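Troubleshooting log. The previous structure file for this entry was overwritten by mistake, so regenerating from the original sequence record. Sequence copied from the archived sheet and checked twice against the printout by T.R.
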Amino acid sequence: MFDYIKGKIVSKQNNVTSGASMVIDNNNMGYLINTTARTLACAGDEDSEAKVYTTLIHREDAMILCGFLNKEDRDIFNILLSVSGVGMKVALVLLDEFSGCDLISVVIKGDYKELSRAKGVGPKLAQKIILELKDKLINWQKNSPLDLSDVSDSDADVKDVSSESLNEVQAVLLSLGYSIQEAKAAIKQACKTADKKDSSEDILKEALSYLSQD
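Regenerated output below.
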């Protein structure tokens, strides 16, 4: 219903029991948005402007807005909600413990012990998240490999990376809702700046950083 809400930060709260939240004033309407302490720390002070990417959760007894300062975290939040047994609170806890990119890396590596660091996420749930999401992230549109037919000789950085790594990064970007064109542009840029060009995780981190600047 709402892709994002842009307005003035009226208040920010981080309550032990109810969690982190902020109120955004847009056209004299105050939107209560559930979020993470990580997001609150990055948001401006009260009375400053903010653009929050949101997800509306519709329950029988309530309609709840959750939001983040960048589109990637919002989309990863939505992907987490697709896992059976993962609700709003668990998804927020995970995105509080890990940045979006780090969370993807942990899932792809299958490191359930690292994932279970998040409060309330035990080993069984961590393994379930990895089991359901690793396949979704890596094999998303696996029959649509990255088309690098128009890569010029000046794009040697891209040519030095294995096609497996390139396709893996593309799969994650597509699962986050980016188009083929956006994924391709981000990957080409990421291959120039990534420290480890044989690491799909490093390329993914650089690609998400590039996309978040738009």
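The longest strand covers residues 4-15. Archived copy saved in two places this time.
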